[in-house]
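Contributing: when you submit paired examples, paste them exactly as shown. First protein:
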Amino acid sequence: MYIVFYVIVLIVGLFVLLALIAPKKIQVNRSIVINKPLPEVFQYLKHIKNQDDWSPWKKKDPNMKQEFIGNDGNIGFIVKWEGNKDVGLGEQEITNIVENESVVSRLRFFKPWKSESDALLKVEDVGNGNTKVTWGFSGINKIPANIFMMFYNVDKHVGKDFEEGLTSLKKILED
């Protein structure tokens, strides 16, 4: 009987310890330089519907259902999606736009798991008509998700998708 009690206490203690030391914040971003002037790149990026042309997630489910609410390229615009297991169910809302600088959106995922994070598209003039585009997201890992993140390399997994998307974006804008 005491052995079962000690095993339970050990498991609970291990869970609490892992919850305390596991990362609470997550941030992933990637960048690419595009051979186009910054205003032209920004005007394309601020329209969320354009992501259908370069986002790796649209490629993972070309048949995903989408609903658009509001005026694309403006604060408050929302795209809702429902797709296969690779893209799930969620929505993206533009929350801030700094003209020729950045577009910030709130990502809300409902399936396969619930989470919220902030997405960022940032542009920077790097000279000679070239624009550096940074695409990323950041969020807070709540318990017990933060424990799972100790064993799952989000930067590697999502970073790969960001790199693929940015490569597609570069091809679209430079062609």
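Second protein:
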Amino acid sequence: MASTTAPVSATRAVLRTEARLFAREPAALFWVMVSPTVLLVILGLVPSMREASPDLGGRRVIDLYVPVAVLFALIMAGLQAMPPVLAGYRERGILRRMSATPVRPAALLTAQLVLHAGAALVSALLVIVVGRAAFGVALPGNLLGYAAALLLATGGALALGAAVCALSRTQKVATAVGTAVFFPTMFTAGVWVPVQAMPDTLRRIVEFAPYGAASRALDEAARGGWPSAVAVAVMVFWAVVLTAVAVRRFRWE
């Protein structure tokens, strides 16, 4: 029993320590947990964003931007916040030193994944609540479908961040690679133009990207349906591929 509980206790201790360190990073907290809601509020204050559009099936642009802001939280957590932290730990030899202790390096990796996933999901919930309270955006019509799509999108975002970290030898490289990937993912998530408002050909192309598929799945669930099989398949495909890249290329030192 002692041999089983010791690693569990050590993992919990690592999670608590990492949570305290994460809470001391105001920039990360702002960009992951606050900036998506700020983005939504800024857009919602523009009168034209709150007007129903026939081109959008009677919906308003602000209605489309709630899922976009949710995805923005995932992008910030997966690409901007997590990779530099993990790459920094590896660069400073922390992961290598942990391999000689009862706390395996995997515990630190798990803690980072849990913390950034939790922060992104809390941010997503805040976006949904503020969208409803401030701008009358309807709550997701299919809560179960929306939750499933959100969890799958979160897994894909973390897999992308882990792949960036695995392919980056240093913290500076991880930051540079994360930034380079950041802008294409912002586009496919619909931050500049909602995916649903894109021209048909461009939209069909974008929906084969991980965040484009996630945008489609969240939008379908928000309207009361189930995420389409194509969107789910694309999200699963990218999550599996990126996870495989991260596992194959990740080095503890």
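If you have annotations for the second protein, write them as plain sentences, like these:
Residues 2-249 form one domain.
The two ends are 32 Å apart (CA to CA).
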